[in-house]
């Protein structure tokens, strides 16, 4: 299953992901049209300041999802086909238990309807809107295996000493497919 991954070193806090998310979840699916909708669309990714950095926060679709456990109506559930944690707004009573249970702060209450909203990984798209909109590629959509390979590659590159070539002694770059 692919997941939205965050590379905090690349995030510049531009909030393009927030705008793209809100537009994708609007009725019109376009920025100008979304601004004039009766009920303004809600973003499901939140860029938060963390010291000198900005961090996009979205649902991690946890394996042990506390939000699913505490939901009294079953509105929060795991979609077996995609493996993602989804939300049925028609079953939601707006109690906010899931919002309190989320360790990442990735669930927000829609003030207009009182039900919660969260990342759904844009099921009608090949790549979530937030990922497609990120100009610095701070958001990536990949499998955990792809993420691990990327981390190993980055670590291997950091191990190379400045000024050394990949073939020089002391700089051993493992080939990571």
From TrEMBL:
GO MF assignments: 4 iron, 4 sulfur cluster binding; metal ion binding
Annotated ranges, domain 4Fe-4S ferredoxin-type: 2-31, 51-81, 83-112
Record has Hydrolase as a keyword: no
Assigned keywords, A-Z: 4Fe-4S, Electron transport, Iron, Iron-sulfur, Metal-binding, Repeat, Transport
Top-level taxonomic group: Bacteria
Pfam family, any one: Fer4_11
Keyword tRNA processing: no
PANTHER family the record matches: ANAEROBIC DIMETHYL SULFOXIDE REDUCTASE CHAIN B-RELATED (PTHR43177:SF5), PROTEIN NRFC (PTHR43177)
Name of this protein: 4Fe-4S ferredoxin, iron-sulfur binding domain protein
Organism of this sequence: Syntrophaceticus schinkii
Gene name of the record: cooF
């Amino acid at each position: 299953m692919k997941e939205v991954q965050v590379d905090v070193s690349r995030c510049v806090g531009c909030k393009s992901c927030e705008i793209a998310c809100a537009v994708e979840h609007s009725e019109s699916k376009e920025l100008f049209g979304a601004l004039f909708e009766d009920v303004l669309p809600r973003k499901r990714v939140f860029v938060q300041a963390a010291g000198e950095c900005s961090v996009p926060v979205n649902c991690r679709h946890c394996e042990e999802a506390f939000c699913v456990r505490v939901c009294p109506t079953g509105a929060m559930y795991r979609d077996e086909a995609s493996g993602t944690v989804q939300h049925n707004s028609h079953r939601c009573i707006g109690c906010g238990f899931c919002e309190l249970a989320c360790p990442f702060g990735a669930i927000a209450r829609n003030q207009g309807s009182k039900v919660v909203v969260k990342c759904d990984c844009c099921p009608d798209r090949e790549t979530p809107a937030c990922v497609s909109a990120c100009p610095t590629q701070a958001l990536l959509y990949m499998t955990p295996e792809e993420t691990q390979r990327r981390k190993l590659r980055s670590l291997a590159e950091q191990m190379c000493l400045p000024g050394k070539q990949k073939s020089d002694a002391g700089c051993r770059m493992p080939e990571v497919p």
